[in-house]
């Protein structure tokens, strides 16, 4: 059977789509495994992706082979797909914290899938017969007598998977529901699109070309894993998603350009054959250069930070050295010794603070650091935090004025990270306030978001400096004169942490010596009825 020109195009689209799906599947599986290889969730996701990628690769090979026996040999890797179904059920059991309860069933599923593979390997004709042409495919699956056993088993696993997923969704809190939504969307898409190539095996006349979109299923499920487990959701999930989409789009664009070139040459044989390939090659080179520059940005920032932090460490270390030298002198009296010890203590405190900032920044850039979201009442969270500043307020004669909104909806936060953000905002308000002043802390609900504002009456910010206040290493001239040891990264780090919570940080000031208001906005969770 010689396919028509439309059939050739459909076969090409299917080949490109399934190939991209295989690469995307194994790529996202590897990415999740490398970023969290100690996590059972990430490891199971990788296990789920391996047999699926093998099936996709064997599928695209089998549909293009002319020899029926060779095509069937390629299609035989389809017998590995039950492992993907079982690993999916195991993954959902782990994600929903039901792994212990489901242990016996999961073991039974793994054992049954291994038995099915052994059965079909014993006699491959029971699984698939020699391939035969179908639509525009040179060869396609021809099921054997026992092939329906695999379909039945996969259906049973799918029903069980759907049951625990739906049950956990209905019983879970808001944070759990938000995470499981991505898994539900992924599985609905995956099994609806993934069933399309199987339907013709049961003589259901449907064109399998839509299966070319199958690879997109890994994006929501990978995001569902990474958004909960990785601290740097902004970089890992969003940037990875953007780069994956760009790579797929550019690949599809290059394929489309070359298809257009083939059609163009059919209608215009005298058209120069080198023009379209040259243009597409230049596009590919340009895209590669762009990716290289984007990857290089992080190295530049790391280099800048290392230079600044090394200078900041020298000052307290120098103070310690000079104070120790002073203590070693024989004519040092008690007053001198007390002053030297006090300087050492202050320098030590500075080193501890610098080390903590350095570690926090390192964690912020380390995409393998785990995130732990908890449903939290910000009003209740703020009360003990503000109480811890009592001695510092007394020393500066400062006062906290609180105005908390009643019945504040909860938020989903990593309490350690958001606690650090609030400490940074409060520390800034105290540091740059005038002695005897007041600092107003308030919470309110605006457009389904929780706004926490910290307002001081201190040195303020020039209007032209407000847009840059959250930039890395930026400090206003007046802030630098008051706190000479500042790094200019605290607010930058705070903004990144809040943005990873799908929130935002903002600053307002009427000018120098007119105070400033820093506001943290976080999405509110819906209250369970």
UniProtKB/TrEMBL annotation:
It comes from the Bacteria. Residues 308-526 form the Histidine kinase domain. It catalyses: ATP + protein L-histidine = ADP + protein N-phospho-L-histidine. PROSITE patterns: HIS_KIN. Pfam families: HATPase_c, HisKA, HisKA_7TM. Signal peptide: none annotated. GO terms for molecular function: phosphorelay sensor kinase activity. The chain crosses the membrane at residues 12-33, 45-66, 72-95, 107-129, 149-168, 180-202, 208-228, 240-265, 271-293. Its EC number is 2.7.13.3. Residues 324-357 form a coiled coil. SMART domains: HATPase_c (SM00387), HisKA (SM00388). Gene3D superfamilies: 1.10.287.130, Histidine kinase-like ATPase, C-terminal domain. PANTHER family: HYBRID SIGNAL TRANSDUCTION HISTIDINE KINASE C (PTHR43547:SF2), TWO-COMPONENT HISTIDINE KINASE (PTHR43547). This is histidine kinase.
């Amino acid at each position: 059977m010689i396919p028509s020109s439309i059939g050739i195009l459909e076969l090409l689209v299917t080949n490109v789509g399934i190939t991209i799906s295989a690469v995307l599947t194994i790529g996202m599986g590897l990415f999740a495994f490398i970023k969290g290889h100690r996590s059972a969730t990430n490891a199971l996701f990788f296990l789920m992706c391996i047999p699926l990628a093998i099936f996709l690769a064997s599928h695209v090979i089998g549909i293009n082979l002319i020899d029926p026996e060779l095509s069937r040999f390629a299609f035989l890797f389809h017998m590995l797909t039950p492992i993907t179904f079982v690993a999916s059920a195991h993954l959902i059991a782990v994600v929903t914290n039901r792994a212990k309860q489901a242990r016996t069933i999961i073991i039974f599923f793994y054992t049954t899938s291994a038995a099915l593979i052994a059965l079909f390997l014993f006699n491959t004709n029971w699984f698939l017969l020699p391939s035969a042409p179908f639509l525009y495919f040179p060869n396609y699956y021809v099921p054997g007598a026992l092939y329906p056993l695999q379909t039945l088993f996969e259906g049973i696993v799918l029903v069980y998977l759907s049951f625990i997923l739906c049950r956990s969704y209905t019983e879970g809190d808001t944070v759990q529901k938000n995470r499981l939504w991505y898994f539900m969307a992924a599985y609905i898409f995956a099994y609806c699109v993934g069933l399309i190539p199987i339907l013709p095996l049961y003589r259901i006349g449907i064109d399998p070309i839509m299966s070319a979109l199958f690879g997109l299923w890994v994006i929501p499920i990978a995001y569902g894993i990474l958004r909960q487990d990785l601290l740097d959701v902004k970089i890992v999930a969003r940037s990875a998603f953007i780069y994956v989409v760009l790579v797929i789009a550019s690949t599809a664009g290059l394929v489309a350009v070359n298809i257009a070139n083939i059609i163009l040459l059919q209608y215009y044989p005298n058209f120069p054959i080198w023009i379209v390939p040259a243009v597409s090659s230049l596009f590919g080179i340009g895209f590669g250069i762009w990716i290289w520059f984007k990857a290089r940005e992080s190295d530049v920032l790391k280099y800048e930070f290392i230079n600044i932090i090394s200078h900041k460490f020298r000052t307290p270390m120098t103070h310690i050295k000079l104070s120790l030298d002073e203590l070693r002198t024989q004519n040092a009296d008690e007053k001198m010794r007390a002053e030297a010890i006090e300087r050492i203590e202050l320098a030590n405190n500075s080193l501890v603070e610098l080390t903590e900032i350095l570690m926090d920044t390192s964690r912020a850039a380390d995409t393998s650091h785990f995130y732990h979201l908890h449903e939290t009442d910000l009003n209740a969270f703020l009360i003990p935090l503000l109480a811890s500043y009592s001695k510092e307020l007394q020393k500066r004669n400062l006062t906290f004025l609180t105005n908390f909104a009643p019945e504040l909806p909860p938020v989903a936060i990593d309490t350690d990270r958001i606690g650090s953000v609030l400490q940074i905002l409060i520390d800034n308000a105290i540091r740059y306030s005038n002695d005897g002043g007041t600092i107003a802390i308030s919470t309110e609900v605006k457009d389904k978001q929780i706004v926490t504002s910290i307002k001081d009456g201190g040195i303020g910010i020039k209007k032209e400096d407000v847009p840059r206040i959250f930039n890395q290493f930026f400090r206003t001239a007046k802030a630098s004169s008051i706190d000479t040891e500042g790094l200019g990264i605290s607010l930058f780090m705070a903004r990144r942490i809040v943005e990873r919570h799908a929130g935002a940080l903002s600053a307002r000031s009427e000018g120098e010596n007119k105070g400033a208001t820093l506001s943290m906005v976080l999405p509110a969770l819906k209250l369970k009825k």
